[in-house]
Known about the structure:
By secondary structure, the protein is α/β, with parallel strands linked by helices. The protein has helices spanning 26-43, 49-65, 90-99, 136-143, 179-184, 191-196, and strands spanning 67-68, 81-86, 103-104, 107-114, 125-128, 149-152, 164-169, 172-178, 188-189, 198-200. The radius of gyration is 16 Å and the shape is globular. The termini are far apart.
Amino acid sequence: MRPLPILEPSRNHPSRAPLAAARIPRGLRASAAWLGLALLALAAGTARAEDANQVKADMLWNIAKFIKWPDSAFEKGESDFVFTILGDDSLAEALAANMSTKTLNGRPVFVRVVGRVQDVGGSQLLYVAASALAHFPEVLRELRGGPALTVADAPHFVEGGGMVDFVAEDDKVRFEIHLARAERAGLKISARLLALAHVIDTDPSASR
C-alpha cells in the first residue's frame, strides 16, 4: 500500500465547499442513512481485504451521521469538521478517500493525516492507525477527555480506552461502541445506531 502523505496541521486549512444536493427532508435523510448503515452491518462480508476496508470506511461515515458533537467541540468561527488520521495502515487510505468529499451536519469534512501524537488536538473524529496504536495512551493524554470520537481497526481497542472499533463476526464486519466513554466526552449517540452496535458499557479504563 502506498504510504499516506504526512500533512503538517494548519489552523488556516482551506474549507471544502459542500456538494450541491437536492433538498431532502431531514427525517428522510436520517432514515436513509440508518437503512444504509443497517444494510452494511447485516450484509458486509469480508472476503477480500480491499472490500472489507471499503465497508469499514462506509460504516464509519454512517456511524458519524448518528453522533452529535457539542458546540464546544468546534472553535468559534470554525466551520470544518476535522477528521484526523494518526499514522498509517491499510484502512487509512480508504478512510481518507471516503471522507474527503463529505459534509457532516452542514460542516465540510477536513481530512488531515498526521504522524505525531501532539498534532491530534482539534479533532472531532480521530482514527488511530495500526502504526500508531502503541502510542494510544499518549493520545488519550493529549485529548484530555475532549469531544473527539476515537476509532481504530484493532481488536480490544475499545477495552483499551477507545470509543469505536471494528470486529469480524460470522464473516461480517461489525462495530463496537463504548457508550459511557463517548457520553463522558460530550458525544450524543443515536439509539438507532446503538441498536446496530455491540455496546460495551463496562469501563476497566475509567480513569483514562
